[in-house]
Model the fold of this input.
Amino acid sequence: MKSIEDNPQGITEAEIVVGIPSYNEADRIARPTGQADKGLRRYFGERSSVIINCDNNSPDGTRQAFMDTATETPKIYLSTPGDVRGKGQNIRNLLEKAVELKAKALVVVDADVTSVTPRWIFNLVGPLFEDFDYVAPLYVRHKYDGLLNSNIVYPLTRALYGRRVRQPIGGDFGFSGELVQAFVEADAWTDAVDNFGVDIWMTTVAVRHRSSVIQSFLGMPKVHRARSSQNDPDMVFRNVVGTVFDLMGPFHDFWKDVKWSRPTALFGFGMGEVEMASPVEVDSGVLWEGFSAGVHAKWEIYERVLQRASSAKLEEVAGLPKDGFEFPIALWAQILYDFASAYRGAVVPRDELLDVLIPLYQGKALSFVRETDSMNTQQVEEFIEDQCLQFEKTKTYLLERWVQG
Amino acid sequence: MAKVLIVDDEEGIRMLYSMELEDEGYDVVTLPDGKDLLKTIKREKPDCIVLDIKMREFNGLDLLQSIRKEFYDLPVILNSAYSSYKVDLKAVAADYYVVKSSDLTELKEKLRIALEATIPKK
Done:
C-alpha cells in the first residue's frame, strides 16, 4: 500500500526502529526526530538503528522537515499514497517496514509530542532487550487529560483482558520484533483501526497475544498539540470505543475466562524530580449540554439498548440538576456492557450506536470532573482504581448479557 | 489450600497475620525481612505475598520490583502502616495496597481477590 519511500542511505536492516507517525507536523517533527537520534546514540550506540517518519503524504512539508533534521542515525520517510489518511495507515506501513528491516525493537513516538527526551527512547527500548514484548508508557498527566481513557478505555480493557495498562492509548509504545510480526499477521484491521483506533488495537492485541507487558515511566509529562479539527473528538471516540467493541467478538474466548486483573512490571525509575503536568481545562457546560440534550433526544434508542433496570436508573440520573449531578459508576459499567452487547448483536446500526453513547459518556465525564474537583493526582488515581474494581465486579453482568446475545 | 508469605519486620504483625490467616484456612510462611526473599519464594512457592514496605534494612517497594522481575505473575499485596507510599509509582506493580489495621477484613478481601485473579495462560 505504501506509495512513497525515501531511503537515501539504503538501509536494509536495523535492530532498533523508532517510528514517528505524522500528518501535517512540519513545525513539530524535528523535535522528536532529534531526541530519538540522541537517545539512540547515547544509549544504544552499539546497535544498528533507523528513524522512520510514517506520514500521510502531508501537504505542509512534513517530509522535508523530517529529512532536513540533522541526525547521525539514518532516516527513512514512508508515506501512504495520495490522500489516504489515518494514523493506523501510517502504523501499518511502519509495522511492515519494521518486519522487512528485521527489527528486534520498534518504538513509536507521536510526532506532535514536544516533551520527548532521549531518556524516553531508553525507557521504551530498554525493556525490549530484557525479554519484554510490549512497553506501555506511564506519564505524569493532569487529572482531566485523557477523560475518555479514564472513564471508558482503561477500566473496560482492564476488566476485559485483566492486565492493568494505565495508558492503553498513550501513543508512545515499544514492541518486540516478535510482537510486531504478530501485529502484521493479525486479522481485524478495520476502518477505525486505520485511524485513531490503532493504539487500543495494538494494546489489546498485545495483551491478547499474552505478551509480557511492562509499563515504563517516562518522567516528563506528555505535552502535545491541542486537539485540532483534524482530530475531531467524536471521531476519536467512535474509532477508539468502536475498536474496543469490535475486538470483543473475536477475543471472547479469551476475556470470558479473565477474572479481576493483574499489574504489570515497571521500568524507568530514578530520574530525579518529576515535573508536574500543566492543568487541563474542561468545559462542564458543554458536557452538561451534550448529556442533557442527547439523553432526551435519543431516549427511544436507550430503551432498546439498555436493560430495563439500567434505563430506569438512567432516567433517574437524567432528572438530576447540574449542581447535584452524579453518574453512579455501577450504572456506568452496566451501560457500557449493555452497549457492548448491543454492538455485537447490531441491535442498532453500529455507527449510530456509538454516536448515541457519546451523550452518556459526556454525562459520565461531567460526573468525573465534579467528583474529582478537589482531589490531587494521587487521590484521582485511587478514585479511578475504585472505578476499575467496579467494572471488574460487574463483569458477571456482561458475561450473562453476552450469552443472551 | 493457598500458601501466603508474610514479609514484615514486626514480630507481632507476623504472629497476628499467621493466626488470622491460618484460621481462614491458608498455609502461612513468614519472613522478618527481605534478605532471603527470592530464595524463599523459590523454595516455598507461595501463591501470594503480603509485603511490608518500611522495614529496617529493606524497602518493600524495591523488593517488589525484584519480585516482578523474577516472578512476573506472583500476586503481591503491599501492606504498610503508611498510606503515603501509595503516591510512589513503584506501588503500581503491586496487586493491591492495604493500609495496616487491627481489623484484617480488607486484607483478607484483597487476598481473596488476588488469589482468584485469572488471565488465561498460553
Q: What stands out?
A: DSSP finds 17 helices and nine strands in chain A. Residues 217 and 268 of chain A are 5 Å apart (CA to CA). Chain A has a mean pLDDT of 94. The beta strands of chain A are 4-6, 16-22, 49-55, 75-79, 105-108, 134-138, 173-176, 213-217, 265-267.
